[in-house]
TrEMBL record:
Protein name: Major facilitator superfamily (MFS) profile domain-containing protein
Protein location: Membrane
UniProt domain Major facilitator superfamily (MFS) profile: residue ranges: 1-316
Main subcellular localisation: membrane
Residues passing through the membrane, by range: 12-37, 43-62, 125-146, 166-184, 191-212, 224-244, 265-286, 292-312
Gene Ontology molecular functions: monosaccharide transmembrane transporter activity; symporter activity
Compositional bias segments (type: Basic and acidic residues): 348-360
Species: Aegilops tauschii subsp. strangulata
Recorded GO CC terms: membrane
Length: 360
């Protein structure tokens, strides 16, 4: 529903909202930690009903998108009226024509999960798998899940550990706001690359401090503990204005309508799968290799930054219905989705039609 020139900023509102939610949860935990008789954790868990209520009631008032109206009902008049309301102008015919064209392609292409594995969608498939996979290998959910445990491990007390989680999340929230302001000006690739470099340096710094100063008795000088906190704030900010919001923005942009639902489903599935893996393994890995854990995260961030540099083209301000042209111009993907790739795909489709059609 967002216009192309503001799509990045509006989509980043998703990550900002998540960050604000985590911030509120961290503040709540800090406030209730000292309540007696176990009321602290009961209040913390039960308050999750508040956003759930907002989601349920808010969903009643959500309009459908113009593309969905066209795809489901074929009602271009209703879609045009909604598009004019969203854009604040009556000059929407070109965009409407693009939506109708994309919808016609989508109707002709049944089975989006089968379709996304075709050669012409190979770049999109690679990105919807790799971007969320790398997202979790930054180590961000280590901060979301285990920040208080980490800060207590390096010598901060319980209240200070929870307050440290609040501080890191404040940094993330401000970084999300910065991302909303600059993503459509500087583009997706620059944010991916600069944020990646920022996270690499942060993880290396944390690993180096822990390797040098974390004592065998499990304690660390308070000055170094606060230095770790500052470095983790830099790391969280780097994630929050790059890989955090862009993990959901870029796959949405690059997938055409006929495979968009499949692409987004894969993104969410990979995020949840890797969240589970990281959540279940981090503490064991930390106990085993200690500071090496952060060097491992830094190595993964190096790999994913290189992948973005080599294989992800810029998509800012480009209408989603015209996104396939980006891949045809890319130095690597044009070999797969260019003219030769189209010929191979057309030949395969002809063969499939022959197999599916009944013999006369």
């Amino acid at each position: 529903m967002a216009p192309p020139q503001y799509r990045g900023a509006i989509n980043n509102g998703f990550e900002l909202s998540i960050s604000i939610g985590i911030l509120i949860a961290n503040i709540l935990n800090y406030c209730v930690v000292k309540l007696a008789a176990g009321w602290g954790w009961r209040i913390s868990l039960s308050m999750a009903a508040v956003p759930a209520t907002f989601l349920t009631i808010g969903a009643i008032f959500l309009p459908e998108t113009p593309s969905f109206i066209i795809q489901r009902d074929g009602d271009t008049d209703k879609a045009r009226a909604l598009l004019q309301k969203l854009r604040g102008t009556t000059s929407v015919q070109n965009e409407l024509d693009d939506l109708v064209s994309a919808s016609n392609l989508s109707r002709a292409a049944r089975y989006p999960f089968r379709k996304i594995f075709k050669r012409k969608y190979r770049p999109q498939l690679a990105m919807v798998l790799l971007i969320p996979f790398f997202n979790q290998l930054t180590g961000i959910n280590v901060m979301n899940f285990y920040a208080p445990v980490m800060f207590r491990t390096i010598g901060l007390k319980e209240s200070a550990s929870l307050l440290s989680s609040v501080v890191t999340r404040l940094c993330a929230t401000f970084a999300n706001i910065i991302a909303m302001l600059v993503v459509d000006r500087f583009g997706r690739r620059k944010l991916f690359l600069v944020g990646g470099i920022q996270m690499i340096l942060s993880q290396l710094a944390v690993g180096a401090i822990l390797a040098a100063e974390f004592k065998d008795n499990g304690l660390m000088d308070k000055d170094y503990a606060f230095l770790v906190l500052i470095t983790m704030c830099v790391f969280v900010a780097g994630f929050a204005w790059s890989w955090g919001p862009l993990t959901f923005l870029v796959p949405t942009e690059i997938c055409p309508l006929e495979i968009r639902s499949a692409g987004q489903s894969i993104v969410v599935a990979v995020v949840f799968l890797m969240t589970f893996v990281i959540g279940q393994t981090f503490l064991a890995v930390l106990c085993r290799i200690k500071s090496g854990t952060f060097f491992l995260f830094a190595a993964w961030i190096c790999v994913m930054t290189l992948v973005v540099y080599l294989f992800l083209p810029e998509t800012k301000k480009l209408p989603m219905e015209q996104m396939e042209q980006v891949w045809r111009r890319h130095w690597f993907w044009k070999k797969i989705v260019g003219e030769e790739g189209d010929k191979e795909e057309e030949e395969k489709e002809r063969q499939e039609k022959k197999i599916d059609s009944p013999s006369s």
